[in-house]
Structures are given as C-alpha cells and as structure tokens.
Amino acid sequence: MFKELAMAQRRLLISIFLFGLASPMVVLYANTFLWRHSQDPIILAIFNIGSYAGIFIGFFLNAYLLRMFQSGRLYTLGCILQGIVPILLIALGAQANTYVLPLGLALGIAKGFFWANRNALTSKITQGPHRYQFVSLETALSITAGIISPLLIGWFIVFGDTHSSYTIEQAYQITSVVGFILLIAAGSFAWSYTMEPFTPKQFLLRQVSIRWKKQRLIEMINGIASGIESILPLIIILLFLGQEEAVGTVKALTSALSAGVIYSLGKRIKHTHHTLLFGLWMSFNFMGSLWFALFYSPEAALTFFILSGLVGSLRWSSFVSVMYEVVDEEIEESGHHRVLYLLDREFFLNVGRILGLGLLIMLYLYSHELLVRYGLLIVVVIQIPTVFLLQQMTQSLKQQV
Predict the structure, then answer these.
(1) Residues 6+ apart with CB under 8 A from 348
(2) What are the domain boundaries of the chain?
(3) Less crowded by CB within 10 Å, the N or C end of the chain?
(4) Nearest-angstrom CA–CA distance, 115 and 75
(5) How far apart are CA 5 and CA 12, in angstroms?
(6) Residues contacting 113, CB < 8 A, separation 6+
(7) How distant is the alpha carbon of residue 250 from its chain centre?
(8) pTM for this prediction
(9) In CATH terms, is domain 2-190+208-400 a member of 1.20.1250.20?
(10) Which segments of 243-315 are extended strands (E)?
(11) Per residue in 226-245, pLDDT tens?
(12) 163 HSE (CA, 13 A, CB side)
C-alpha cells in the first residue's frame, strides 16, 4: 500500500513539474501578448475576470462529470484544453482584444477541470503527517519549472526580433505549440488516477461549520489579493524593467529565491507554523511594496521583486496545507465528499479574485499612478485579517490532533 502511494505521488509530481514548464506559456505570456497589442490594463483585467469566472464553472462541470469519468481522465482533459486556448488567442493576433472575455472564460473552464482534479488527487494521496513535505516538494518543483520556463520563453520571444531571425508573432506561435505538447505529456502521467465514487445529491454546501466559514473568509480575502496580483506585478515589470525578456528574468529570479527558501524549510515546517510563515511573507512584501511606493523607480521595483521572491513560496504552501487539513477534518465530521469542499473553496476564492480585479479597474480609472504606485501596498493591507484567521484555524487543528 505504501509503495503504491509513493508511486502515485511520484507520478503526480512529474505531471506537476511538466505542467509548471507549460504554465507560463498558457497564462503569463498570454497576458504579455495582450499587453503588447493593447497596452491597456483593463483588457488584461477582463481576460483574467473571464478566467477566474471560468475556473469555478470548470469546477462545477467537473463535479457532474466525475459521476461518469475518472478523475485522471478529467485532469488530462483540463491539461489539453489549457493548451488549445493560447493557440487560438495567438492565432487571432490583434483581434484577440475583441474576444478577451470568452477566451478568458474558456481558459478558466479548462483550468477548473485541471485544478479540481489536481486538488482532489493531492488531498487524497497525501493524507497524514507528511503532507507538508509533499506540498513543499510540489512547490519546489513548480518553482524550479518557474525558473526555467519563463526565462527561456521571455528571451526566446525577443531574441528573434532583435536578431531579425523570426518575428515576435512567430515566437509566440512556437511557444504556444511547445506548451501544448508539454501539457499533453503532463496529462498522460495522471490518466490512470482514480478516486472514490462521486455521486452526490447536492453540489453546494448549505450548512457548514464555523471553521469552514472561516476558511471561506480566508479564501475570499486571499482571492481579492490574488486577483490584483495576477496583473499588477506584470504591469510594473513591463513599465519599469522591459518587455518579455524582463518578465522572464524577474520571474526566474523570484522563483529561484522561493525554491531555495521552501526547500530549506520544507522538512521542518508543521501546521502550527503556518501563521508565522504567512506573517513573514507579509513583512517582506510590506517592506518591498513600501520601498517601491516611496522611490517609484526601476531599482525600487527590482528590490520589491527580490524581497517578494524570498518569501513567495511561504504564502501559498501555508494556505494550501491548512486548507487540506481543514478539509480532512470537515469530511470526518460531516461525511460530505472531498470534492464538495474543494468546489466550495474554489467558489469563494474566485469570487474574491474577480472582486480584486474589479478593484484594480476602479483604481486604474481613478488614477493610473495610484494603482501602479500603491497597489502592491494595498495587496498587503487587504490580507491583514488573514493572519488572525490562520492563527485561529491552526490552533483549532492543533487541538484535534
């Protein structure tokens, strides 16, 4: 049993790494492609609003389809569909700005299939005291892919134009095809995964515990910040540091810093430490965003990304670990299927993301400089209540161990 579980974990980690290599081609450079044609943050915001709305739709459709298909099949479907959307976007060229909402929605639905099954499978095969070690290794592999892929793609996109060997458009076309191939490979490693049968009479959680209500609030707050972060750091890089090559270099640098931190801490962290880690993330991000707001220069922007990169992995790994532990406790007490809790969590997370992007649009319409200069500080301030909520959650979980 242990050997089978270890094999399942290894296959999932390989799939996650391959997905991590392809992910920048799907999301990051889809945004830079839109920026290159529009120079308009609102276009990016609409694309990402569609994406986040589509994620929940994908989660919901996935819940229905799990009655007919195995989780691994739907995971693979999510990978393949994510590769198709960027190809369509790049094929449309400048006309893509007209279709950003349906394209974002289609991408989001594909991501919903992927993440619904990735979360469920991860939750299932990592139960027990070693879960954070798996999450740490998963995060480290994703970050490693985040070092390699953005750097290569960013410099590849601008290299051809600089040396007159191929155009920017051709570079985007090539990277989208390579990303599609990697996503097919990622899906193949999860094709055979199965889960316990899922035939619920309901798809929404109506009566939930106080603990789960707190988890919903954490997801909502985190989603608001995540929505702003899906665009704002990218805009800052493009405005202050350069084009695609700068995006790739900065992403690779921050990923390298994050990988070193998460690898060194992974085996030492317990769920009682998550609040401390999140507080550390907030402290570094506050210092970096304040520095950028005060000096508002390329050097200040680079300082922010270095400080943020040092602790970037601590935030999501802590959130996800606590969420999985809470889900385990809720399943044991309520008897509901794991997928219902992950579906509910995704709803509140993506509602928060859409609210965050709405806030970004309002700030941009009010003042371009206000958004760019102080938006990073707003992200930190928004998440202050999360420190207290995480503390309550981890103490509650500690008492039940």
Answers:
(1) 216, 217, 219, 220, 223
(2) 2-190+208-400
(3) N
(4) 8
(5) 11
(6) 58, 61, 62, 74, 75, 77, 78, 81
(7) 17
(8) 0.87
(9) yes
(10) none
(11) 999 999 999 999 999 888 88
(12) 8
